[in-house]
Write a structure and sequence with these properties.
The chain is an alpha/beta fold. It contains seven helices and twelve strands. Helix 1 (about 10-25) crosses helix 7 (about 235-250) and helix 5 (about 180-190) packs across helix 6. It binds NADP nicotinamide-adenine-dinucleotide phosphate. NADP nicotinamide-adenine-dinucleotide phosphate binds near residues 62, 78, 85 and 88.
């Protein structure tokens, strides 16, 4: 095996790539980690890692890339809400008989006394939220569209990097930056005087949820898209590395 292809867009994807990159630097016989990003961020490649950007042109293109790289394993660590890639990765890996792992962090679960309002989709949440709400939308710029249709709510919309893009909603403003710790999320929500938080159930750090609970904000939690059952799965970076090491032990690396 010459390479491990990691389909990225998450912190977990980057962490797996970083660890395999370090291994590659100290063991030249270790496979080359190739981190694939759609290209939305300007982040540089971690040491020892080859970065590629842009779509593959569908499952056939991805299958061809797996073969071109000589990838003996594919880790699909795209976001829990990625709409297309998990299905396309399955189709492509099956076509070229490459081992595939879906790495997906566990969803958040409400703690006792956390009365989240569950919504099946962003459009569902947008329809449920009452007029006059002052919202913090932690749904990415791509999640704003369903909130465009009504002008009776104010929305702060977080994006990771600054952009010249006009604010896409009738009332509100951009917030540029990544989610922070509890102190910074508390300061942000208080300054913005929001009454509600709309968030995809991405899992991971809970700072904004804990702050929302403390401040008494209404939390509108978007449920994850359904995925077909089956396939190899990991919930953590460590589990993904165990899977890779098992392939190595079988002689694939
Ligand atoms: P998507 O619907 O699964 O992907 C749309 C298309 O983008 C795919 O069919 C593929 O094009 C290309 N693509 C996606 N991830 C790629 C990758 N890692 N490497 C190369 N091509 C990739 O995904 P999305 O929901 O639009 O999200 C786009 C990216 O942002 C994903 O990588 C995802 O992990 C990340 N992300 C998404 C969210 C979210 O809430 N959806 C949040 C944070 C990060 P081809 O078919 O041409 O190969």
């Amino acid at each position: 095996m010459r390479a491990v292809l990691i389909l990225g867009g998450t912190a977990e994807a980057r962490r797996v790539a970083e660890i395999l990159g370090q291994r590659r630097l100290t063991q030249p016989s270790a496979p080359e980690p190739v981190l694939s990003l759609l290209g939305l961020t300007a982040a540089a490649a971690p040491p020892g890692v080859t970065l590629r950007r842009g779509g593959f042109g569908g499952p056939a293109g991805l299958a061809a890339e797996i073969q071109r790289l000589g990838a003996g394993a594919v880790i699909d660590a795209t976001h829990p809400f990625a709409a297309q890639m998990p299905r396309r990765a399955r189709e492509a890996a099956a076509a070229v008989d490459a081992p595939l792992l879906r790495l997906e962090r566990p969803a958040w679960r409400p703690r006792l006394g956390e009365p989240w309002i569950s919504a099946a989709s962003l459009a569902h949440a947008a329809a449920l939220i009452p007029p006059g709400a002052r919202l913090f939308l932690a749904v990415g710029p791509g999640g704003a569209a369903p909130f465009r249709v009504r002008a009776d709510r104010w929305c702060a919309l977080r994006r990771a990097e600054a952009s010249d893009a006009p604010f896409p909603l009738p009332h509100g403003r951009w917030v540029v930056g990544s989610p922070g710790d509890q102190a910074s999320e508390r300061a942000l929500f208080s300054t913005l005087r929001v009454s509600g938080l709309v968030v995809k159930n991405s899992g991971g750090d809970r700072a904004k949820l804990d702050v929302a609970q403390d401040l008494g904000l209404t939390v509108w939690m978007i449920q994850r898209p359904a995925r077909p059952p089956g396939g190899e799965r990991a919930a953590t970076v460590e589990e993904a590395l165990v899977w890779l090491d098992a392939l190595r032990a079988q002689g694939q690396f």
